[in-house]
Amino acid sequence: MKQQEGVIKYQLNHTQQPISSQYSLTDINAWRTIAVRLDLIGQSPERYDNIGFGNIRQRIAPHSAQFIISGTQTGHLEQLSPEHYCLIVKAEPQQNRLQSRGLCKPSSESLTHASVYAQNQAIQAVIHAHSPEIWKQTIALGLPHTTADIAYGTVEMAAAVEQLFQSGKLTQTSLFTLLGHEDGVIAFGRNMEETAWELIKHLSLAIRIELQCVNR
Ligand SMILES: [Zn+2]
User: Fold this and answer.
1) Among 76, 174, 183, 211, whose Cα sits 20 to 30 Å from the Cα of 7?
2) How far away, in angstroms, is 35 Cα from ligand 1 center?
3) What's the whole-model pTM score?
4) In what helix (H) or strand (E) does residue 193 lie, and over which residues does it extend?
5) Cα–ligand 1 centroid distance for 16 (angstroms)
6) CA-CA distances (angstroms) from residue 110 to 115, 191, 200?
7) Ligand 1 mean position to 216 CA, how many Å?
């Protein structure tokens, strides 16, 4: 892996303060645990030099520009507590700037996520997963994707995501792969459940193709 998952590339203005207990983390937490069990989010000595991978986030309320995201380097934990989440107070993908609050700093790629939210107010949830299966079948599955020359968490990535939305390729599929970021996949939806299903559905389609190749 060329870029390290844990490296924070953007300009981060972080306040080390607990996030308000008014935010319910139950939904995001349950789906994150499922993603960890499916190896879509996690940390493993066999993958990416043991650096935590993937993250999950949710808008705090419909139409709000603020969201809750799992903190950086929490991949080794199957279940998270409120101190492992972070509130994105303000995201400015074009300026490469982010303001956050929490006892944990936000995961890398927060700007890529922010550019997903900026495209459509109906998007309430985003999961950034690492799936070798889906990623490798990008072409076979005809998945929308950002190209191999675009590194994750950069201003270029934020712009590429915007282009992908404008191209109309994401009207049928709420998932795209990041070919410049090994195994990187982003799914989004109107809620956590819809987003997670989109991811799991494509995992099943990718595994189906793998099995067809093996059995041929
Ligand atoms: Zn990643």
Assistant:
1) 174
2) 14
3) 0.91
4) helix 192-215
5) 24
6) 9, 18, 22
7) 32
